[in-house]
Amino acid sequence: MKEVTGDPLITEEDEVDLMFLGFLLFEDPPKPDAANAIRNLKELGIGFKVITGDNRVVARRLGIQMGLEAPEILAGEEWHQIGDAALVRRVASIDIFAETEPTQKERILLALRRCGHVVGYLGDGINDASALHAADVVISVDTAVDVAKEAADLVLLKHDLSVIADGVRTGRNTFANSMKYIFITTSANFGNMFSMAGASLFTPFLPLLPKQILFNNFLSDLPVLTIATDAVDPEQILSPRQWDHRTIRRFMVTFGLVSSLFDLLTFGTLLVILKASEAEFQTGWFIESLLTDLLIILVIRTRRPLFRSRPSRLLSTAIIAVAAAASLISYTSLGDKFGLVPLPWWWLLTLIDITGTYIITSEFLKKILFPPLRSHNGSQGKPTTAEHFQNAPVPSPRTKSCSP
Q1: Which of 216, 215, 224 is nearest to 186 (CA)?
Q2: Which domain holds residue 97?
Q3: Which residue in 171, 190, 305, 368 is deepest, having the highest Cβ count within 10 Å?
């Protein structure tokens, strides 16, 4: 400061003989919940990296405040010395990229993708434009510049990283339940196809009438429609999964053939032991087929033991209701319209016994043939849900040797 008298207009010539008063410190700290949000992402197997134009000292300070302990930093002259191949080898181990230019941001994302990572990028400025187009998933905020918002796949209306973690959980839950449906439907249809073909070799009549097949499919599909509401075992959410058609095929063949084996056991019981007539055979297989289709859902929906994973209330109610209807419908006038006839009560108990043996066998096969998945940190985790009967995520074709 200095005392000024006379003309209040200040010029450069006046800026002499000033008295020093002190410094002004400007701080832009991270949000209070940032560290907790980053921990949530880490628990989901999502790595967090900071890419900033700030100098390494500021970037390091912010990184520590956000929970990055002893972060490894790439900054300054190193950017001019490191080539693309070297960056690919180091990119996974670096926590903070400081003093970056816009084109260097793009190089970082491309290096991560070459390592096989699925990359999400959060940016809100014009200098983020090239990086936004290089990411797999582009995230921005509602206060970002138009260029960033137009490039974004997701625009956050709430400025909180926890929103991303919540979205990941919801997405993995949706993917898990979708895979349940695929496993259940493919294995059931594959098994029924073999069963129908096999029964035609031993019976002089149709194993099931067309209207019975349609009615059976209608009833068995009712509980499947509620899978979208089903609970997912918590440990399944902790790791990302990818589509794996080989696992689907293996699962379909294994459980489809087991289903056909027990269908053949039912055929033999009805024809050889119980001496069933045409209508009684069709009724017996209708009931057994429907019960197995319903109860196998409880086995397939989880990698845990059957009784250690609770399905949603809606799914449980639907299975119980349709199973009861399957057992009793042949004793009603509706069953008569579909060609179903009443069966002796001990026949019904026999069919229930066969179904129970099938469920126990399927549970045993699940434990033997589909071991627990490994968690994102490489250790063998708790049993995980059956919608991902696969050994590990399938690596991307672009995967190259990268540091851990």
Answers
A1: 224
A2: 25-164
A3: 190
How far from 303 is each of 19, 40, 370, CA to CA, in Å? 74, 24, 8
What is the C-alpha separation between 365 and 383, in angstroms, rounded?
15
Give the tens place of pLDDT for each residue, 15-54: 888 999 999 988 888 888 888 888 888 888 888 899 988 8
In angstroms, the CA 301 to CA 291 distance is 16
Looking at the fold, whether 148 and 197 belong to one and the same domain comes out as: no
- Interval 357-383 mean pLDDT: 68
Q: φ, ψ for residue 51 (rounded to 5)?
A: -120, 115
How far apart CA 1 and CA 186 sit, in angstroms, is 81
The owner of tokens 């799914």 is: 315
Q: Are residues 213 and 86 part of one domain? A: no
On whether residue 33 sits in a domain, the answer given is yes
Distance CA 363, CA 299 (A): 6
Pick from 171, 190, 189: which is nearest to 179 by CA?
171
This prediction has a pTM of 0.76
**Phi-psi region at 342: left, alpha or beta (left = phi > 0; alpha = psi -120 to 50):** beta
Which range among 25-34, 100-109, 279-288, 292-301 shows the weakest confidence by mean pLDDT? Answer: 25-34
- In a domain, residue 248? The reply is yes
Same domain, 145 and 184: no
β partners of residue 374: 380
Please tell me the total count of domains within the chain: 2
Percent composition of the chain: helix, strand, coil (DSSP 3-state, to 5) = 60, 5, 35
75-120 pLDDT per residue, tens: 877 887 888 888 888 888 899 999 888 888 888 999 999 988 899 9
| pLDDT for 379 beyond 50 | no
